[in-house]
DNA sequence: TACTAAGCGAGACGGTACGTCGCGTCTTCTT
DNA sequence: AAGAAGACGCGACGTACCGTCTCGCTTAGTA
């Protein structure tokens, strides 16, 4: 794994042996990711999210970006990872509350940018299994949290014993995704959307 | 409406007055769309789906493409329209049967290509409301058919009276979309997937 | 031979069959070469003679330059060819007059630029026999003219019968070259330099 | 004078006061110059004679080079100085013998590299009078030796009293230069070339 | 023995130019 | 007119060096 994907992985990998030469400027990483957000925020086309623009905005040489990520897509995957923030942790009191929390976490205001970045990635992901794998390594842990909530619900009897976990997961994340990335159905702005979706799904999933 | 969007629209627009000069080569339209499919099929990156490559593959000058579509995205929208084929018509016997049919129609083998083309469009769609509008003019009629089925179900009492049609629509199309475009959840290959999804949705939607 | 080297060669090569597609803009060729001269004239370093600068100065895209010449050096060779202008033609009355004319032709005011351009080429020529060959195809015809004058002088008895033509040629062109390119010996500004050099050489070469 | 130009100069400059800190590694100087020679010898383009390549070849950090020379050109000038070796000393028996010796010294096998290095310098020398001055400080002493031989020849009556020393010098060094740097006239390989050139020049210069 | 000061290999840094590719437009000749 | 061909201005791509700047380490002279 050449590029970072996540900082924690890299730091834990090496055996305390300090790399020779001048160390990377950690601030540059932040500046670059921030520049990606700024550019996406300033209303310009996702196609216009060029490495050159990012470098200029971040006040950084192009090489400094290419030293960290092998290409534009890898950078964007890491931008996504940053946007997602830390893994959400379900409280565990009730399946409904946990799911509402998880679904809401997929739909906060940062997700406007998330949709744009993902859109930028899709053309390349459609082809490259490698990129898809990297992207999944960011997305899948979050999906796994939801799976855990569903499985626990089955154990506690809150959910039907024969529930198709994978299908239910898709019914929760698919609509969110369609809104974030495809900008379908303006009800996306509805504050109660998360609850409505979870309730609709649970109505068919409850024991 | 500059570009075609659908062939039928254009042909009905002109008033029998024969245009002067050499008529357009109708075969070229087919060749161009076919070239788009061929390129997507030949395993190359979606980014590599350039107009130049399409023109070369179709044995056509670039101007011949730009004479028909104002830009790359418009061409791809029409490619999608072609892939989708004619509007599906629900039989009307039962809501379940109709929904299974509609969902299945979104997931046949052509849809692998559909995901790729859509992926190509997303970066530009994220910015351009114009392109989003055009794309919707292709997608929305299909979604409207589904809405009709749901509304009829409410009328006949097959579905709950207080059903949120828009949300239900999203629960049907979102998972499909997530599979087609994002290639999430390998159960996409399951032949029974359409039935399973519809049943899960209906379980919470039934009266 | 991909690039032009000389316009005349190219035009005589094809068999009256017009190339398909939009023809090259002949003005662009002139603009590009002119931009090279302008940049060299405006006192900037030869290293700064970048293709990007030439394109900007000429109001032309980089691709338009690379369509005509495979690289920077090839462009400069053609710039040299242009600077040299048409082959000088010796009058033939006396060897001395002809040589003075030829030597003077190598040292006019355009030659300041000539030195700069040649200097730009040398690093690459030192390695690439191909580039050296191209450059020689521009320079050699002129050297051949001088050889002709010398050989005729031997025939007419004006010059010693056992004269080493090649060595004499080198004694005439070497000093000029050292001045033009290396900027040795400030006597280069002397108006009588051509006569002085020719006389000095002839003093040892006369019959 | 920031850089070395010649080692001897620098060493004589300091007043026995030992500089504090770790002394420079004298071997590095040799390794660097040697790396320049090796790279030029290994048949690669003169353009490829990058500082980075030199540093890598010499097993040295880039900073170690820049600590000794202010830029690439200064390094190359010193490489030339090294190649030239110590000032040749004319025997003084006859003008012809001395000139043959001096001309031969400009044309030994090391001079193949000399031509390449000089070629690398020319683009920058064409602009920078400073670099030209530095280069002359290496070349000029050698030219001065030749001038001395010519002047002595005039005094002894071996050469014409009204001989133009500067022009004669140019007639001797120009051809050599044209061969070394421009690789003109393959007779450069002729072992008798030095004698032939000197004789030709003297034939017109003799009293 | 410890401190100070510089040299050293390594390599990151902000830049600039390279040569390539695709965009959407244009200009030619042919159909 | 439409068509195939392909040149045009533009701008981003990813690479290579430039000359500068840290890093941690080594190697002296001085305290």
The CATH class designation of the largest domain in chain A is Mainly Alpha
Mean pLDDT of chain A: 85
Tally of helical segments of chain A: 10
Q: Considering DSSP H and I runs of 4 or more, what fraction of the residues of chain A is helical?
A: 55-70%
Oligomeric organization of the protein chains:
homotetramer
What does the main sheet of chain A amount to? none
Integer tally of domains of chain A = 2
Q: Secondary-structure element order of chain A, as H and E?
A: HHHHHHHHHH
Sequence-ordered SSE layout with sheet pairings:
4 copies of one chain form a homotetramer.
Chain A: H1 7-13, H2 26-41, H3 51-58, H4 62-68, H5 72-84, H6 95-105, H7 110-125, H8 129-156, H9 165-182, H10 193-205
Chain A binds a DNA duplex (31 and 31 nucleotides) through helix 3 and helix 4.
Would you write up a description of this structure?
- The structure is a homotetramer of 207-residue chains.
- Chain A folds into two domains: 72 residues, Tetracycline Repressor, domain 2; 120 residues, Tetracycline Repressor, domain 2 (Orthogonal Bundle).
- Chain A is 66% helix and 0% strand.
- Chain A is mainly alpha-helical and 207 residues long.
- The N terminus of chain A is likely disordered.
- In chain A, α2 crosses α3, α5 packs parallel to α8 and α6 packs antiparallel against α8.
- Chains in contact: A-B, C-D.
- At the A-B interface, α7, α9 and α10 of A face α7, α9 and α10 of B.
- Chain A binds a DNA duplex (31 and 31 nucleotides) through α3 and α4.
């Amino acid at each position: 794994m050449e590029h970072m994907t996540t900082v924690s992985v890299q730091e834990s990998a090496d055996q305390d042996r300090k790399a020779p030469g001048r160390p990377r400027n950690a601030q540059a990483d932040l500046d670059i990711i921030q520049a990606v957000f700024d550019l996406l925020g300033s209303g310009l086309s996702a196609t216009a999210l060029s490495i050159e623009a990012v470098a200029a905005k971040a006040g950084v040489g192009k090489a400094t970006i290419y030293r960290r990520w092998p290409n534009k897509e890898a950078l964007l995957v890491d931008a996504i990872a940053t946007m997602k923030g830390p893994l959400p942790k379900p409280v565990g009191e009730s399946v409904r509350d946990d799911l509402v929390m998880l679904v809401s976490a997929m739909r906060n205001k940062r997700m406007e940018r998330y949709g744009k970045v993902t859109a930028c990635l899709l053309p390349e992901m459609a082809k490259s299994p490698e990129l898809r794998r990297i992207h999944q390594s960011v997305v899948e842990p979050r999906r796994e949290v939801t799976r855990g909530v569903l499985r626990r619900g089955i154990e506690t009897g809150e959910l039907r014993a024969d529930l198709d976990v994978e299908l239910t997961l898709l019914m929760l994340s698919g609509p969110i995704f369609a809104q974030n990335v495809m900008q379908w159905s303006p009800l996306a702005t509805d504050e109660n959307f998360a609850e409505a979706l979870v309730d609709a799904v649970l109505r068919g999933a409850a024991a």
